[in-house]
Structure formats: structure tokens, C-alpha cells
Amino acid sequence: MEPEKILKKVKGRVPEVLGNRDFSKYAILLPLIEKEDGVHILFEVRSFEMRRQPGEICFPGGRIDRGDEDEKETALRETMEELGIEKTAISNVFPLDYIVSPFGMIVYSFAGFIDPHTEFTPNPQEVDTVFTVPLQFFLDNEPRVYRIDFDIQPEESFPYDLIAGGENYSWRARQVDEFFYIYEDRVIWGLTAKILMHFMEVIR
Model's pTM, two decimal places? Predict the structure, then answer.
């Protein structure tokens, strides 16, 4: 291949996450609501009828559809559908960092305000109930942190003879920190807690 053709291919490229086309992509909204005692964060309890993660606490959000203009539009659409509210009730939506999960998933996160006078009509197929927690609680309380270790187990036919070190190759083990916030009888953990902790770092 001629140098000119190579340069034409790479010139002006916008870098992306390598292999991202194979990732499942989601977008969520961290909803803020101003109340008499200050700003609160709204959470959903997932319907107990759902196949995946029934009864867990999360933010509104879901898979990015091809028809969505961008990730922000996905977060807004999902919030509207799950909480039964109009788009006009949501304002000042800005991006947070996105998460690239080791399990082949990218989650785009946004924070935005919901009009405090909004009445919610949660979609019962997806949402069991909604509740709010004062923002100050998360500013005052660090999450509990627990570590998960992942074992590396190549399949039986793995070609050890093709790599330096063979069967004694020094694999780099994967470790993931899981965060837990406990508010009254509510346990907030997983990606929701990770996004929440990131948001606290941003606003502190």
C-alpha cells in the first residue's frame, strides 16, 4: 500500500474505544430535584417482574437505539418513558464520564434537573417505585468499597506454545472495586454507585 493511501486512511480520524462496535451501549440520567431541604437525587427500584436485576436500585436509562440522535437523547427518552414525564420537565442536562465495562458494555452518563412540580407516572413494566435521597447524604458519606477478583482461565485448546512463557505465562489478573451506599433500608451499588461516586467527585 502506498504511503499516501495510508495517510488518507488515518488522517483526521477521531479516536474511539477500540472494539466499541461490539459493545452494548447504554445511557442513563442522574436526576436531580430541588426540594425544600435542598437538592435530592432520584432513584428507581427496578420492577420485580424484570428478567435482569429485578428489584435493584438504578437511575433511569437504557440501551441506545439507532433512532436516537445521540447518547443524551437516549438518556432523556428513557427517563421520560420510565418516569412518565414530559421532556420539558428535564433541564440543564450535562455529560459525566462514561464507563467502559470489562463485560463488553459502555454506559454514557448525564446529570440533569427535573422540575420539582413534576408528577411521576412510573412505567410498571420497568419501575416498581421511585424515591429520592438528599444529595448532602452522599457528600457526607463515602461508599463502602469491596474488591472482586477475576480468575483468568484460558480454554483447553489455548495455544500456549505460541506465547512466551507458555503455560507459565504471567497473566495480569483483573480486579474490580464495587461500591455500596446504604441509606436507611436502601442499598445502592454496582454501576449506579460507581456513577454516583463519580458525580460526587465532580461537584465537590
Answer: 0.88
